[in-house]
Amino acid sequence: MIERYSRPQMKRAWSDENKFAKWLEVEIAVCEAWSELGVIPREAVPKIKLARVNLKRMEE
């Protein structure tokens, strides 16, 4: 995005951190559905929900 045309709300919405956070939300929802179907153990879901996005670590 061109800096001078970017409003703060739009910059946050399109940031890498927000993008990966939304992807993580989708992955967690899929894992919840899989646990209901028996694809993954139900006990795994609470541990998966503890996952956090860490851009610095991802860029290493």
Task: Describe the structure concisely.
InterPro entries: Fumarase/histidase_N, L-Aspartase-like. GO terms for molecular function: (S)-2-(5-amino-1-(5-phospho-D-ribosyl)imidazole-4-carboxamido) succinate lyase (fumarate-forming) activity; N6-(1,2-dicarboxyethyl)AMP AMP-lyase (fumarate-forming) activity. The chain has one domain (16-59).
Which helices and strands, and how do they pair?
Layout: H1 8-13, H2 16-37, H3 44-48, H4 55-59
Number of domains: 1
Structural class: mainly alpha
> Largest sheet, described in full?
none
Give the H and E element order. Answer: HHHH
> What is the radius of gyration?
16 Å
Mean pLDDT reading: 93
How much helical structure, as a percent, in the residues? 55-70%
End-to-end Cα distance, whole Å, is 24 Å
Q: Give the helix tally.
A: 4
What's the count of strands?
A: 0
Low-confidence stretches: none
Tell me the fraction of residues in β-strands, as a range. Answer: under 5%
Morphology call: elongated
Would you mind describing this structure in some detail?
This protein starts with 7 loop residues before the first helix and ends with a helix. Helix content is 63%, strand content 0%. By secondary structure, the chain is mostly helical. It has one domain. The protein is elongated. The longest helix has 22 residues, at 16-37. The chain contains four helices and no strands. It has helices at 8-13, 16-37, 44-48, 55-59. The model has no long low-confidence stretch (mean pLDDT 93).
